[in-house]
Amino acid sequence: MPTMADVARSAGVSVATVSHVLNGTRPVLPHTRQAVLDAVEQLGYTPNGLARSLVTSRTRSIGLAVSAISNPYFTEILQGVEAAALEHGYSLLIADPHDDPQHERTVVQLLHERRVDGMIVAPSARPHDLVAYLARHAVPTVFLDRLIGSGPETEAGDGPPFDQICADSAGPTARLVTHLAGLGHRRIGLVAGLPGLSTTRERMTGYRHGLAAAGLPHDERLVVHGDSAEDGAQRATAALLSLAVPPTALVTANNAMTLGALRALRGRGLSVPEDMALCCFDDFEWADLFSPRLTVIAQPGRELGAGSVRLLLDRLAAPERPARTVRLPCTFVHRTSCGCPAQPEEGTDS
User: Per residue in 23-33, pLDDT tens?
Assistant: First the structure.
């Protein structure tokens, strides 16, 4: 089995230089780095990850804690995280907190005990214990998709600053509402997500802004919580349909709730868009296969995942730099569930 010394002899460099190239511990001239990588490839050298971690105090692994991994949106995020991590020589350890604050705290501690170099976490609606743990142990962390509030727990004084990355939510949601209002709808319902999540708050804010921009009143009875889940959205939509004067159009605030809303409508014998216009936050890989094809806000899932890795690596390289919050634009994808005639699919940034 080839050794690091064999690689050094083949590349014509010192063992220390080979170590710096493989561990990223010091800049190396591009042609020298390439010579080392070529020697590694030719000899079939496999670095000893355990030995390297003992020397560098790094395991080159990232802990990823994301709920609802089966959700197509989070699957896209996972693909982005994985691709970016592998590109930079990192492996992933993945856990599902199930949107439960106590379980979230437990799985993050377990990941931390596996000596990951840093964490990427989509926090629950009540992340106080999570944030306290991460701050107490100074764990380099990026919060993904869902933001935590600004407060003492997010400052650098008692722990690390926390970088965050998410998609825009308020503006794109307002775009859906004004689009429906422009089609003549005056009673537009919202199936909102789990209370306490930043995405839920921001999409509710966008809904109100959209109504105001269209000159429509805000009626609390037209806002229900589907708790970010299919079953919850089915019950919430049924409640909207039971109003004395139900809405004529719906905005659903994530893809799982879109399925629940569609089930509720079908259960009442209602069709989209003839009986109820529908616009959705989150695109599906199969959204254009529905009949009608779903008008949606598409989030940049893979870009969010890759961006979270870049933020974490920046944090590992410069632990003292100020925390950053990055927002990525979404895309309005115009199809036919809103009641518009069939047309070539268009996507515009929101």
Answer: 766 788 988 98
